[in-house]
Design a protein that fits this description.
The complex is a heterodimer. Chain A has helices at about 15-35, 40-45, 50-55, and strands spanning about 5, 10-15. By secondary structure, chain A is of the alpha+beta class. Chain A has one domain (about 5-55). In chain A, strand 1 (about 5) and strand 2 (about 10-15) form a beta hairpin. Chain B is an all-alpha fold. Chain B has helices spanning about 1-30, 30-45, 45-70, 80-105, 115-135, 145-170, 175-190, 205-240. Classes of the chains: A alpha+beta, B mainly alpha. Chains A and B meet through helix 1, helix 2 and helix 3 of A and helix 1, helix 3, helix 4, helix 5 and helix 6 of B.
Amino acid sequence: MNSSIRTFGTDVSAQSRLMQLALAGLLGLFVIGFVGFSHLEAAHNAGHDYRHSMAFPCH
Amino acid sequence: MTLFRNVVFVAALAGLVAGLFMAAMQAYATVPLIIQAESFEGAGDGHHHHGEEAAEGHSHSHGEEAAEGEEGWAPADGFERFFYTSMANIVTAIGFGLVLVVVSEFAGGMAGWRQGLFWGLAGFATFTLAPGLGLPPELPAMPAAELGARQAWWFVTVVATGVGLALIVFRRTPMLAALGLVLIAAPHIVGAPQPASFDTPVPAALHHDFVVAVTVTNLLFWAVLGTVAGTLRARFADEAGTAHKRFA
């Protein structure tokens, strides 16, 4: 298949583009979820002021 | 994996800038109000318990008791606390940046700082405005419904608002626009989980100031995140020479 797509300064196949974007998106969601919604005590206390300031449900 | 690398690079740089900016804004706009509210946590407790024991049963066991009594590790007040707040800001800003850049790629990519700014405003509407309507920013020592239920409502509202906005902006039919509006309104018709009693020792004026401070700092945060991401993204496209700038 030569259906490469020019995107973001690179040429990628449609399938590879989808896979790479999905991977980057999941990484982002994981990071937000871990810091914003973690029930781990240490992570919870470290990010306390941050979560209040972002209006994330906290206590 | 060049595309992945480029997306991460743009998101990381935009997140670093926006996260540092946000930490600086919070240090003077929101954190002092949080610390002020914490002074009511001990004082209000006797009063707090009697009206709210039933209402807060669940959240209490996890949050308050743990936070107040036998506490685990927590950063010391002052620089250490500021440092961890800043780290949380930068790390999640990169996370938000990743989500913003990835979603915008599916719509053709940000073609410059101005489109980036609009994407940032959409992020603000999705992640701050919509969930903030049902669950206004809360201060310590304020009553709230069970944590898990609020987190679930928050998440569903964010997804519904994001999808709703996308349907309105990118699908140009009246039917789908109407569906988008329904999706945006639905979580608020269902309603966010609320505590049985709103009794709190925190003064209403303090809470009001906090809601304004959180909303405005988030607006500026998203504006910076989107603008920087859009600028960088356009630079990447230009460097490639014949980049196709596909407008949404």
